[in-house]
């Protein structure tokens, strides 16, 4: 016999299968669905035990996705992961998905593309606009400075 609890667990399994989720996302969803206390904790335990919830896997997927698709830098990715309550260990594991060469190459390409797009005749102002853009994407000042020559 399928219980109400089983139905709730199955709904959360589907939610986790759609995309990797962190614990905070699932907790928020459960609370939104008016599931609290022991029942919430039991559902979380089932999802973790069955590997539907895995913060290391989430961190790796998040880092890879935000870097490759959104072209975010490490600072922005780290800030987002911390806001989601991801542990420093999982964040470190996530960043193992990006090699230093890939990171520098992405930063260089992004810098050059933005530099070409900015319509500014004053070279100082143009560089400043590109620097601000790169910082907003989460790239470190030291990295961007290398391309400013």
Q: List SSEs in N-to-C order.
A: HHHHHHHHH
Structural class: mainly alpha
Classify the helix fraction into a percent range. Answer: over 70%
Shape: elongated
**Overall radius of gyration:** 20 Å
By DSSP, the count of extended strands is 0
Task: Report low-confidence residues grouped into runs of 5 or more.
Answer: none
Query: Total number of helical segments?
Result: 9
Q: Proportion of β residues? A: under 5%
The biggest sheet amounts to:
none
The oligomeric state is: single chain
Q: What's the end-to-end separation, in Å? A: 69 Å
Q: How many structural domains can be distinguished in the coordinates?
A: 3
Q: What's the pLDDT, averaged over the residues?
A: 97
Protein name: Regulatory protein RecX
Subcellular location: Cytoplasm
GO biological process, one term: regulation of DNA repair
Pfam family, one: RecX_HTH2
Description:
- Its main location: cytoplasm.
- Keywords: Cytoplasm.
- It holds the Pfam family RecX_HTH2.
- It is a single chain.
- The chain has 149 residues and is an all-alpha fold.
- It has 3 domains: 4-49; 55-95; 100-148.
- Helix content is 74%, strand content 0%.
- The protein has 9 helices and no strands.
- The chain has helices at residues 4-18, 23-32, 37-49, 55-68, 74-83, 88-95, 100-117, 123-136, 141-148.
- The longest helix is centred in the C-terminal third of the chain and has 18 residues, at 100-117.
- The mean pLDDT is 97.
Features:
149 residues; mainly alpha; 3 domains; 9 helices; elongated
């Amino acid at each position: 016999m399928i219980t109400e609890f089983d139905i709730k667990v199955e709904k959360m399994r589907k939610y986790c299968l759609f995309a990797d989720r962190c614990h905070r996302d699932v907790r928020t969803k459960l609370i939104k669905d008016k599931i609290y206390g022991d029942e919430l904790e039991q559902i979380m335990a089932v999802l973790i035990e069955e590997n539907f919830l895995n913060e290391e896997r989430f961190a790796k997927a998040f880092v890879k996705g935000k870097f490759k698709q959104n072209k975010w830098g490490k600072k922005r990715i780290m800030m987002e992961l911390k806001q989601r309550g991801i542990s420093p260990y999982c964040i470190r594991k996530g960043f193992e998905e990006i090699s230093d060469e890939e990171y520098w190459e992405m930063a260089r390409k992004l810098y050059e593309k933005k530099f070409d797009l900015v319509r500014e005749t004053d070279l100082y102002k143009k560089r400043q606009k590109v620097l601000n853009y790169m910082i907003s994407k989460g790239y470190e000042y030291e990295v961007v400075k290398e391309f400013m020559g």
